[in-house]
Specification:
This protein folds into 2 domains: 57 residues, no CATH class; 242 residues, no CATH class. Helix content is 36%, strand content 21%. It has 14 helices and 15 strands. The chain is globular and about 50 Å long.
Length: 307
């Protein structure tokens, strides 16, 4: 497939590989639009003073994610927006797809072997179970939506990601039973699999991902300050002693927030990402602690829990 005549497109990875940025600029497609739509990986061949070519490559999706001042870990939603319009899903796609591809394939295979999952495993019945099983059996090549559009529910409704800028959304990571970790812009198919589930051939999903994502999550936490807004179920997928800022929401009487705190969690996440432009890489962890603990809500208080 060609983009306006002579820009080759890698259909498997849904990206255009541009050989000469100057020639690309002469195309009849606006470069910014094309770069955004195709998730382009640009190799710009410049000429040095001595006449030799100098190749400049854009950072990978993962490197761009880790270049942020901080990242927020959010839970997925059990219910998800149906359908999709983006490229077909493959386990290696997304910011952390290359590292998680083999583990994701094993999850896909295990779901296929149990006919998409039982009512007990998936936590739904009736038409919801039918949809969940159908989705879990057709994951490879399924239509996708960006993670921030796929996930719905109370937390995500109050986060309101559609009104955030792309830069603000890029600070969001999601702990997923299917993918391990998804970035907010990663393509995600319709699926149903909680971290608290146990899958035949896999075992407890949270334990499965904890064992396979330890190196990846440790690297993330060592390079970027991570704010953990996960529920207990997803926190079981994190390696022990991972250096993150674990946030707990409590009522003003001191009780754990529980389900009632989901809306507040979405608002807190929004509060953090919309303040992100005020941070520098220096002392980010300390500043985030101050912001979290100073956050105001009529019913809940946020506290940093030692991990």
């Amino acid at each position: 497939m060609k983009l306006c005549g002579d820009v080759p497109v890698d259909e498997q990875h849904s990206c255009a590989e541009v050989i000469n940025i100057k020639e690309f600029g002469c195309q009849r497609v606006a470069p910014v639009v094309a770069l955004t739509f195709f998730r382009v990986q640009v190799h710009s061949h410049l000429t040095s003073l001595d006449g030799h070519d100098v190749t400049m490559a854009t950072p990978s999706l993962k490197e761009r994610c880790l270049s942020r001042e901080f990242l927020i870990l959010l839970p997925p939603s059990e219910g998800k927006a149906p359908g999709g319009e983006s490229s077909p899903w493959a386990p290696g796609h997304g910011a952390f797809g290359p590292a998680a591809e083999t583990a994701r394939l094993q999850i896909v295979s295990a779901l296929a072997n149990c006919q998409g999952g039982t009512a007990t495993m998936l936590g739904v019945k009736g038409s919801h179970l039918d949809r969940a099983q159908a989705a879990n059996l057709t994951l490879i090549g399924a239509a996708t939506l960006p993670a921030w559009q796929r996930y719905t529910g109370v937390v995500w409704d109050h986060l309101d990601p559609a009104t955030l800028t792309p830069s603000q959304r890029s600070r969001i990571l999601i702990a997923s039973g299917l993918g391990g970790i998804f970035a907010a812009d990663d393509p995600v198919p319709d699926y149903r699999l909680k971290m608290g589930a146990s899958v035949p051939g896999i075992g407890p999903v949270a334990r499965y991902w904890r064992e396979r994502l330890q190196d990846e999550l440790t690297e993330i936490a060592q390079r970027v300050t991570v704010v953990d807004l996960l529920a207990i179920e997803q926190r079981k997928a994190l390696p022990p002693h991972l250096p993150v800022l674990e946030v707990t929401l409590r009522t003003r009487a001191g009780a754990l927030g529980g389900h009632a705190a989901k809306a507040a969690k979405g608002l807190l996440a929004r509060h953090l990402v919309t303040l992100s432009g005020r941070f520098t890489n220096q002392a980010t962890s300390g500043r985030l602690r101050e912001v979290v603990e100073a956050w105001e809500h009529p019913d809940f208080l946020a506290e940093i829990t030692p991990r």
